[in-house]
Design brief:
The protein has 216 residues and is α/β, with parallel strands linked by helices. The chain has seven helices and seven strands. The longest helix has 28 residues, at 188-215. ATP binds at residues 10-17.
Length: 216
C-alpha cells in the first residue's frame, strides 16, 4: 500500500506532539508516529555529567543515517525497530519499539525540515509556529515534571543551546514548510483541513490496494 509521509516540525514546546496525537486519534492503526527525538545518538562511555553538557539541539546530535534507513524501510512496506531514548539519562536505552508500516506515517521533530535528505521523503511538510514565551513555559513544565530536571538546569539549557539553535536551525527551516500551523493541535481549523487531506489519501490508498488484491 502506498505510504504518505507527513513531517511535523517546529520549536520545542510548540505543539507538535499535540498535533500528532490528534491525528493518531483520528486514524488509529492507519497512522503511525515516529519521533525524531528517538534517534538521538547513543553516548556509550560518557559520564552522566558529560551527557548533560551535550548540545541536543544541533543536527549533529541525531543518528540521521539510521533514521533515513528506517524511512526507506517504511516506504518499502517493512517494519522497523525504532530506538528508545531515555531523556532522564540523556542516552539511548537498550530497548526498541517495533513499528509496522501504515498508509500514513507522521514524523515529528524540531529539526525535521533542516536536512534535505529527510525532506525528500516527505509528501507534506508542516511547521507548528508558537510564540517563544509559550514554548519555553511548556518546556519548563515538561522537563521538570516528566524528565526529572531541575528548574535551574532547564533554564541553563534553554539559554545556552535551545534558544541559539532554534534561531540558527529551527526557525530558518520554516521556509521549507508547505503549511504553517499556529498553535499546533489546538488549531481546530488547521487540524480539520489536515484530517480531510489525509482521509482523501487513505481512501485512495485503500482503493488501490483493493484493486491490486483483486488483480492477483
Amino acid at each position: 500500500m502506498k505510504c504518505m509521509m507527513i513531517g511535523v516540525a517546529g520549536g520545542t514546546g510548540s505543539g507538535k506532539t499535540t498535533l500528532t496525537t490528534r491525528l493518531k486519534e483520528c486514524f488509529g492503526d492507519n497512522l503511525c508516529v515516529i519521533s525524531y527525538d528517538s534517534y538521538y545518538l547513543p553516548h556509550t562511555g560518557m559520564s552522566y555529567e558529560e551527557r548533560c553538557a551535550l548540545n541536543y539541539d544541533h543536527p549533529s546530535a541525531f543518528d540521521t543515517e539510521l533514521f533515513l534507513q528506517h524511512l526507506e524501510a517504511l516506504k518499502n512496506g517493512e517494519s522497523i525497530a525504532c530506538p528508545v531514548y531515555d531523556f532522564k539519562e540523556h542516552d539511548r536505552s537498550n530497548e526498541t519499539v517495533l513499528i509496522s508500516p501504515a498508509p500514513i506515517v507522521v514524523l515529528e521533530g524540531i529539526l525535521l525540515l533542516t536536512d534535505p535528505r529527510i525532506r525528500a521523503y516527505l509528501d507534506a511538510k508542516i511547521f507548528v509556529d508558537t510564540d517563544a514565551d509559550v514554548r519555553v513555559l511548556r518546556r519548563v513544565v515538561r522537563d521538570v515534571n516528566k524528565r526529572g530536571r531541575t528548574m535551574e538546569s532547564v533554564i541553563a539549557q534553554y539559554l545556552t543551546t535551545v534558544k541559539p539553535m532554534h534561531e540558527q536551525f529551527v526557525e530558518p527551516s520554516k521556509r521549507y514548510a508547505d503549511v504553517i500551523v499556529p498553535e499546533g493541535g489546538k488549531n481546530a481549523v488547521a487540524l480539520d483541513l489536515l484530517v480531510r487531506r489525509l482521509e482523501h489519501h487513505l481512501t485512495q490508498a485503500l482503493q488501490e490496494q483493493e484493486e491490486a488484491d483483486k488483480a492477483q
